[in-house]
Every structure is written in C-alpha cells, then in structure tokens.
Amino acid sequence: MNSEAWLKQVRWANDGLVPAIAQDISTGRLMMTAWMNRDALAATVDEGRAIYWSRSRECLWRKGEQSGHEQKVKEIRLDCDNDAILLLIEQVGGIACHTGRESCFFQRLEGKEWIAVDPVIRRPEEIYRDV
Amino acid sequence: MNSEAWLKQVRWANDGLVPAIAQDISTGRLMMTAWMNRDALAATVDEGRAIYWSRSRECLWRKGEQSGHEQKVKEIRLDCDNDAILLLIEQVGGIACHTGRESCFFQRLEGKEWIAVDPVIRRPEEIYRDV
C-alpha cells in the first residue's frame, strides 16, 4: 500500500517525515503540529483518525490513544510543494494539548515574552489518570 | 538581539529551524507553512511582517518581496513543545501561494488522489511579471 502514487507524491524529507498540521474543521482553530511518515499518513487515511510519527518514541502515535482525545479526520490537504500536510479534524473532547488546553499554540508573544494565554480546560492529572 | 531569552526559549532543531505556520487572522484559512531560524523570527517581530528562512536559497525570505503579497503579522504563538510557531497574519492581496491561489494547501485528497480544488486567483505570470 505504501508505494502507491498518492503517497509517493509527498516529498518526504531525508528523515522520511513531513510536518502535519491539525486544524479544527468547525472553529478553524489551529490545534497542533506534529510529524508524519508514509505509514502514518496511510494509517490516518485507513482509520479516519490522526496518526502521527512520534520522533521521541520512534513509533506511530495514534493521537488520543492515552487521553481519549482522538482527532477524527474529515479532510486532508497537501501544499504546493508537496511537503506539508493539513488535517481538517473534529477534536474529540475539545482538547488537543497534553497540558489540557484546547490548542497546543497557547503561548502568545507579548513584547519579548511568551505568555500562556489560553485556559486549561482539564487538568493533565485527570486526563492521564488511567494510563 | 538574537541571544534574548524569548528567542532562546524556542527549541530550534539541529539545523537551527522550526516550522512556521501562517494563518489568516480574519478568515482562519491556513495559508502556508515554511521555516524560521532565530534571525527570521527576530526580523519578523522587528518588521511586523512574515520573514522566513528559505532552505533552497539559504537566506532570509521576506514573504512578498517579489510578488507584493506580504503577510502583516498580527500575533505570534508558540506551541507547548516550543518547537513550532504560528503567525496570525493579514494576507496582502489575498494570495499566499506562488501558484496564484489563496492558500498553498489547495490539493485535497479524494480517494487515493490529490486534486487541486481551489481556484487560481491571479496567474503567476502576472504576479511575477516585473521580477
């Protein structure tokens, strides 16, 4: 499966990865960015949920496998250079970030300082309680 | 300037880069993703317009320097891992992509094929006529 034309068309970097961005399809909120390799993209299409490549753990990472905060994939887009992927998703639980915030992009530059400006919706201790 | 704390807080990869995503602040449309190094981020803040690092040309790339399609930066965000940047921008001319489309993410996966689904607003020959 992973030698199919649509997978070959993606310009995977030397490390086999491209950035993948998840955007909430209903609110437009940019939720997170992570990385995908061929297997991650193929599995994402296959399962209809966001599956990334974890660079730290060096394995496929089914988003929400621990937290329950899955991302249901509604649409997938590729950019003009074929080297970045956009997932339009439904965020289960309304939380994408491991800190318990809606979006991972919760730090805003104010003057010369990054300030956490978004609220924690659910404490991580609660989210990952049963792991 | 580039040794300041807010710049050090970003987790630049070994090649000195992080992905930078530009999102239209009024429509929420994801316009493009590119790369930034320290100098690019510092210059972006300094000049109030998106300035990326061009990996192909190996120099700072003032978005719109040829096309006029600058990106006025209204807000800058950093993600939870400090390794991805989000620019909330005003897109001058309403066109971010060098193909003359609004967004670089104009290819949608339909079945097992990437299809260009967004219209060309202005032909590249017109955009880059005077370069």
Descriptive report:
2 copies of one chain form a homodimer. Chain A has 131 residues and is an alpha+beta fold. Helices cover 14% and strands 34% of the residues of chain A. Chain A has 3 helices and 8 strands; from the N terminus they run αββαββββββα. Chain A has helices spanning 5-8, 38-47, 124-127, and strands at 18-24, 30-36, 51-54, 59-62, 71-78, 85-91, 107-110, 113-116. In chain A, the strands form 3 sheets. Chain A has a 4-stranded mixed β-sheet, covered by helices on one side. In chain A, a hairpin with a 4-residue loop joins strand 3 (51-54) and strand 4. The N and C termini of chain A lie far apart (33 Å). The mean pLDDT of chain A is 95. Strand 7 of chain A pairs antiparallel with strand 5 (71-78) of chain B, so a sheet runs across the interface.
Short description, anyone?
Two copies of one chain form a homodimer. Chain A has 131 residues and is an alpha+beta fold.
- Treating each run of at least 4 consecutive H or I residues as one helix, how many helices of chain A? 3
Major sheet summary line of chain A: 4 strands, mixed
| Global structural class of chain A | alpha+beta
Cα-atom radius of gyration of chain A: 15 Å
Instruction: Name the beta content range of chain A.
Output: 25-35%
Could you tell me the number of beta strands of chain A?
8
Task: Pick out the low-confidence regions of chain A.
Answer: none
Which two chains share the most extensive interface?
A-B, 37 and 37 residues
The oligomeric status of these chains comes to homodimer
Morphology of chain A = globular
The main sheet of chain A orders its strands as 2-1-6-5
Indicate the percent of residues in helices of chain A: 10-25%
- N-to-C SSE series of chain A? HEEHEEEEEEH
* Cα end-to-end separation of chain A: 33 Å
The overall pLDDT average of chain A reads 95
